[in-house]
Amino acid sequence: MSKRTVFQTCARSLVLALPSLALAATLSGQAASCVPPTGQKLTIYHAGSVSAAFKPLEAALTCQTGIQVIDKFGSSVGMGRQCAAATPVCDLYAPADYRDIDLFLKPTGLANFTIVFAKGRMVLAYSAKDIAEKKLAIVDPKSGPFDPPNSIPKASADWYKILTSPGVAIGGGVPFMDPGAYRSYMIFQLAQEYYKQPLLYDKLMGQLVLPGPDHSVDALGKLYDFQLTYEHSARARARNDPDFRYVDLPAEINLSDPARNEYYSKNAVVVLPGLETPGSVQSVPVRAVSVSWGITLLNGAPNRDGAIKFLQMLLGPMGTAFLNENGPAPVSPSHVSPKDFPKLPQLLRPLVKNTEE
User: Fold this and answer.
1) CA–CA gap between residue 45 and residue 96 (Å, rounded)
2) What is the C-alpha to C-alpha distance for residues 187 and 168, in angstroms, rounded to an integer?
3) Strands 226-230, 292-297: parallel, antiparallel or unpaired by DSSP?
4) Neighbours of 356 (CB within 10 A)
5) Quick one: which of 18, 41, 47, 249 could link to 96 by a disulfide (CB 3.0–4.6 Å)?
6) Which helix (H) or strand (E) holds 217?
7) Is residue 21 located within the same domain as residue 64?
8) In a domain, 279, yes or no
9) 125, 171 in Cβ contact below 8 A?
């Protein structure tokens, strides 16, 4: 591929990434051009659930600076362990649960601050064909049509009874690796508390199945009937798959409301293995809070300046635009705790709110 073609491709990526005013200027005839690649590398380990938003942002960073981004994504807890064990450590780490930074990286001195930059909720997904064939009335008949994001039906009042019916299977994952998986366990605990049903957690866990390592198999509606997943991920899939549907659960259960964090934390917890690095503890209790994504700059980051540039883009209008387009929903402005705020690089402080919320 010629240099001109490479630059043209990069320019198109930048056009997509520009905020609205800059984009309008570009479209009016001011063609964008990318700087030549440099020898600088930036390594980002992040949750797979933010890949759609991070990919164009990384392309824009490369176009503007020439920095080559090494993108590693997957299960957040697993990514955290890999990031910590890498030599040198990664530059940035962005898990699907911001507390994975607080509970795993900070105590071992790998990171000093946590920026909460996105939020969401868990929904209950299913195959329309599957539940029709099995006559599983999972949708509240009083709800509106399935038309995300404008209209998302609520789950029927007895959804938990349906999920614990004989022959019904719930797709799950490995909680030691992934917040999406351990949040299912938390939701089962919250459901038991909310509905005051003894042993409901155990019954729901008894329906849980692991689909296996072959992700090319469409397991929903085949290997299992229901799955708890992030709403923005479900919305993206529903756009391309008319059989894919989902319903909303009560706010006391779906981990959507920061105002309910005390309630979530009191009634749901999982215990995960530590980082398995020097100074880390053997196990870590993780209490439930609302679904929020976090990011941090590693203390030993090889490319600290490049990492700060990426964070400036993520926390600014460009990052907000990509999150609005691809999900999860941006927290705007992003926030850090009062304890963490003084530890932020000076260039990032104007971009965040100093608050616990």
Assistant:
1) 11
2) 17
3) unpaired
4) 11
5) 47
6) none
7) yes
8) no
9) no
Count how many domains the chain has.
2
The DSSP call for residue 151 is: B
Q: Which of residues 220, 245, 263 is at a domain's end?
A: 263
Kindly report, residue by residue over 61-115, the tens digit of the pLDDT: 999 999 999 999 999 999 999 988 888 889 999 999 999 999 999 999 999 999 9
What angle in degrees, to the nearest 10, is found between the helix axes of 317-326 and 51-65? 150
The continuous run of DSSP H or E covering 176 comes out as: none
Asked if 353 contacts 134 with a C-beta cutoff of 8 angstroms, the reply is no
Q: Is residue 323 classed as helix, strand or coil in its secondary structure?
A: helix
Asked if residue 285 belongs to a domain, the reply is no
Taking the model in full, what pTM does it have? 0.89
- 190 lies in some domain: yes
Are residues 82 and 70 in contact, defined by beta-carbon separation less than 8 angstroms? Answer: no
Q: List all residues 6 or more positions away from 180 whose beta carbon is below 8 Å from its beta carbon.
A: 49, 75, 96, 173, 228, 229, 230
Please answer whether residues 338 and 357 qualify as being in contact, where contact means their C-beta atoms are separated by less than 8 angstroms: no
Is the C-alpha dihedral spanning 14, 308, 320, 230 positive or negative? positive
CA angle, residues 308, 347, 60, in degrees to nearest 5 = 40
Asked if 63 and 145 sit in the same domain, the reply is no
* Residue 345 dihedral angles phi and psi, to the nearest 5°: -60, 145
CA 152 to chain centre: 20
Residue 131: CB atoms within 10 A of its CB come to 19
Helix (H) or strand (E) holding 322: helix 317-326
Cα dist from 342 to 5, 21, 64, 301, 339, whole Å: 44, 32, 29, 19, 7
Token couple for 343 = 């530890």
**Beta carbons of 90 and 301 less than 8 angstroms apart:** yes
Q: In terms of domains, do 65 and 196 share one? A: no
Q: Which two tokens stand for residue 271?
A: 């215990």
First to last CA, the chain: 48
Helix H, strand E, coil C: the string for 36-73 is CCCCCEEEEEEEHHHHHHHHHHHHHHHHHHCCEEEEEE
Q: pLDDT tens for residues 194-244?
A: 999 999 999 999 999 987 766 555 799 999 999 999 999 999 999 999 999
Question: The domain that contains 107 carries what CATH number?
Answer: 3.40.190.10
Strands 244-247 and 122-127: antiparallel
